[in-house]
């Protein structure tokens, strides 16, 4: 498979899951492959945790079993996403080379007996990884089953060892140049923390009290970069053998330790592992937001779900099973948002080990189970979708909205000693994304330094800490716009610079001329505080800002009610500067209030003709229109309410025409296309 024009992810939707044949005997392998062909599986991830089987003793290799499995899969027409097994070293490595084991912040060594027991800072670990990857690539780079390479697994290992400290100091010198610059960036005049030599700098290990936030932030930057180094070392070995190899690794949604905005350009396919909580009736909001993030990170490259659960996971304290209709809806939500592959963890349920009770495509109950039958039905449906979407005519779609999110600013909002610990940037993003979903608005989740010129509006839910480049980019989207693209800014934004130093003056200091406001104080709140917006009252979640208007062009859109505490009564809660078309929200609001705000602030070109019913997700894409019913009731939706496209629409799954409206049963979903005639569609699917 070539990085450009990959047949599986471009022309066919990838479908399958993690396969661990090393846990089974050869007779089970043959049964598995027969079942895969019946289920429509066309891709398996192989070898993720196979290092101990591939190299049972140092320098002693056994590839015979993997050769047989690879050849069996290829003979059956099943493609392989071949993993480097470096996420879980064999026990012999930790025993012979204790320096490969990570240490946590209090100095405890993380031993073998689980997985991920390695330090990304260990040169010994990286040398052994290079050797096993080189052997693997030499053997399988030309194998016809291999369509993609999967480096490591779910990167997230942080290490506080002495070797990690050495690498951290080298990273700091490269970033800042001098010790004086490090002291300045971290503000080490505070609490007598000034460093007199680079060797005094250590990772943020367990300490008596609060650790310098600059040290914390840079250690998170360094740790993400260090893991990226490990990925790139292995990727480059693969590329040396096959310059056209497709290489990925699996992300984990909004996983804080790894800055996926920095990683994404280095991957050929953006792959994600997603495990929403089935006990949360609103988990579809989080799922949709995560899919939006992955599509946005891909920037036109393929993206896919590498792992999801069919029903239950094994790692929550109380593992509520996911209904099979939810599995289908989550899958179609991903396809609707551009996913070109949907895979599961895992193919066959393990009978031993820590994941015995994690669901699988072939559960312990076997292929006659309802779970496996649902997997077969889904495989058939995705096969039909592959053909129809490939041939779909273009549809008219609303303009997109940029939803700004910055990984490093997210880290900064997770620091202690802020006005409140309830300002996590990812949680605030979720509130705003939910409001956009309710309006049927399609958004991209972008970094603040990404190009913003293509968007009809720019929404900044929270950007507590911002670099000069990010601030200049936000200003440009206002100042260079000939039609005043709305800039909508949430609370606790532009408070600190990229080092975490607080801007002096009335916040948001770098954007105050755009908002036409002056911030006086940050006010954490308990429940019971409301704002009044056009005569309707909405609750403030837990945080507000005391602001005043400073510009004649700025009007108050909403104010705190007369019973608000802390001198907030009557003061602005939401403002709009007509001169710059900048909206400022001085409170953390519920999705209901945000929906009201966005309804007023967003151009009509970004919205559907009518707002979808509550609990119905409508996704507009260039080739299709998806409608997903997350409620327990029938939903009737008029086509005129969800699209302005006048073409005849057809159900992508059945080929049936959809005329004036569609009715979705409870927990059902459909994808509509401007397809060929029904008879032609059936011929395509024959």
3D structure, described in words:
This protein has 686 residues and is of the alpha/beta class. It has 4 domains: 7-156 and 226-390, TIM Barrel, CATH 3.20.20.80; 164-200, no CATH class; 401-606, Rossmann fold (3-Layer(aba) Sandwich); 616-685, Immunoglobulin-like. The protein is built from 20 helices and 27 strands. Strands 10, 11, 12, 13, 14, 15, 16, 17, 18, 19 and 20 form an 11-stranded mixed beta sheet that branches.
Kindly summarize this structure in a few lines:
Helix content is 33%, strand content 18%. The chain is built from 20 helices and 27 strands.
* Radius of gyration, CA atoms, in whole angstroms: 26 Å
Helix fraction by DSSP (H/I, runs of at least 4): 25-40%
The count of DSSP E runs of length 2 or more, i.e. the number of strands, is 27
How would you state the average pLDDT, rounded? 95
The fold-level CATH name of the largest domain is TIM Barrel
- Any idea what the shape is? globular
Kindly give the count of domains: 4
The level-1 CATH class of the largest domain: Alpha Beta
* Largest beta-sheet characterization: 11 strands, mixed
CATH superfamily (homologous) name of the largest domain: Glycosidases
Strand content: 15-25%
Stretches where pLDDT falls below 50 for ≥5 residues?
1-5, 677-686
CATH architecture of the largest domain: Alpha-Beta Barrel
Distance between the termini: 26 Å
Please state the structural category. alpha/beta
DSSP summary: helix tally? 20
């Amino acid at each position: 498979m070539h990085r450009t024009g990959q047949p599986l992810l471009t022309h066919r939707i990838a479908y399958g899951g993690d396969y661990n044949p090393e846990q089974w005997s050869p007779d089970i392998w043959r049964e598995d492959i027969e079942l895969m062909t019946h289920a429509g599986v066309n891709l398996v991830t192989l070898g993720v945790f196979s290092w101990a089987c591939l190299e049972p003793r140092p320098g002693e290799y056994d590839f015979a079993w993997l050769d047989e499995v690879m050849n069996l899969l290829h003979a059956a027409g099943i493609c392989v996403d071949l993993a480097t097994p470096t996420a879980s070293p064999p026990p012999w490595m930790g025993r012979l080379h204790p320096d490969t084991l990570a240490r946590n912040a209090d100095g405890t060594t993380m031993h073998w007996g689980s997985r991920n027991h390695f330090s990304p800072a260990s040169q010994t670990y990286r040398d052994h990884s290079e050797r096993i990857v080189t052997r693997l690539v030499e053997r399988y780079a030309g194998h016809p089953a291999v369509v993609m390479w999967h480096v490591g697994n779910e990167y997230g290992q942080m290490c506080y060892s002495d070797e990690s400290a050495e690498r951290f100091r080298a990273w700091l010198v490269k970033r800042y140049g001098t010790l004086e610059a490090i002291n300045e960036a971290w503000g080490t005049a505070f609490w007598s923390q000034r460093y007199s030599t680079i060797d005094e700098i250590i990772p943020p290990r367990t300490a008596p009290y609060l650790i310098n936030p600059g040290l914390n932030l840079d250690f998170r930057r360094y740790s993400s970069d260090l893991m990226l180094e490990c990925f790139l070392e292995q990727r480059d070995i693969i590329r040396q053998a096959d310059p056209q190899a497709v290489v990925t690794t699996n992300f984990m949604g909004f996983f804080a330790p790894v800055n996926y905005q920095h990683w994404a350009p280095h991957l050929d396919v953006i792959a994600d592992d997603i495990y929403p909580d089935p006990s949360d009736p609103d988990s579809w909001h989080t799922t949709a937001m995560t899919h939006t993030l992955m599509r946005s990170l891909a920037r036109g490259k393929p993206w896919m779900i590498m792992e999801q659960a069919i029903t239950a996971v094994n790692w929550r304290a109380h593992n509520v099973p996911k209904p099979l209709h939810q599995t289908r809806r989550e899958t179609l939500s991903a396809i609707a948002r551009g996913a070109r592959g949907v895979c599961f963890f895992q193919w066959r349920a393990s009978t031993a080990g820590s994941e015995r009770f994690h669901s699988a495509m072939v559960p312990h109950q076997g292929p006659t189970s309802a779970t496996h039958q649902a997997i077969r039905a889904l495989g058939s449906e995705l096969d039909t979708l592959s053909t129809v979407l490939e041939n779909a005519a273009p549809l008219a779609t609303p303009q997109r909205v940029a939803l700004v999110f910055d990984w490093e600013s997210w880290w900064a909002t997770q620091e202690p000693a802020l006005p409140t610990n309830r300002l996590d940037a990812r949680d605030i993003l979720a509130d705003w994304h939910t409001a956009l979903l309710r309006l049927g608005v399609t958004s991209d989740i972008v970094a603040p330094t990404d190009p913003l010129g293509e968007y009809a509006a720019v929404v900044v839910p929270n950007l507590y800490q911002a670099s000069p480049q990010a601030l200049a980019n936000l200003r440009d989207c206002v100042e260079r716009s000939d039609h005043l693209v709305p800039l909508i800014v949430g609370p606790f934004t532009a408070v600190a610079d990229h080092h975490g130093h607080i801007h002096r003056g009335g916040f948001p200091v770098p954007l105050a001329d755009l908002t036409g406001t002056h911030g006086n104080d940050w006010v954490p709140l308990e429940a019971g505080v409301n704002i009044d917006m056009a005569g309707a009252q909405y609750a403030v979640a837990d945080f507000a800002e005391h602001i005043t208007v400073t510009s004649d062009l700025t009007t108050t859109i909403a104010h705190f009610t007369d019973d608000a505490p802390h001198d907030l009564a009557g003061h602005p809660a939401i403002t709009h500067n007509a001169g710059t078309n900048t909206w400022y929200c001085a409170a953390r609001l519920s999705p209901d209030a945000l929906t009201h705000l966005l309804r007023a602030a967003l151009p009509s070109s970004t919205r559907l003709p009518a707002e979808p019913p509550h609990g119905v997700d409508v996704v507009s894409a260039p080739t299709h229109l998806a409608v997903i019913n997350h409620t327990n009731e029938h939903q009737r939706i008029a086509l005129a309410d969800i699209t302005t496209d006048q073409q005849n629409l057809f159900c992508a799954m059945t080929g049936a025409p959809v005329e004036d409206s569609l009715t979705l049963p409870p927990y059902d979903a459909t994808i509509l296309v401007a397809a060929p005639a029904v008879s032609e569609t059936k011929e395509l699917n024959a």
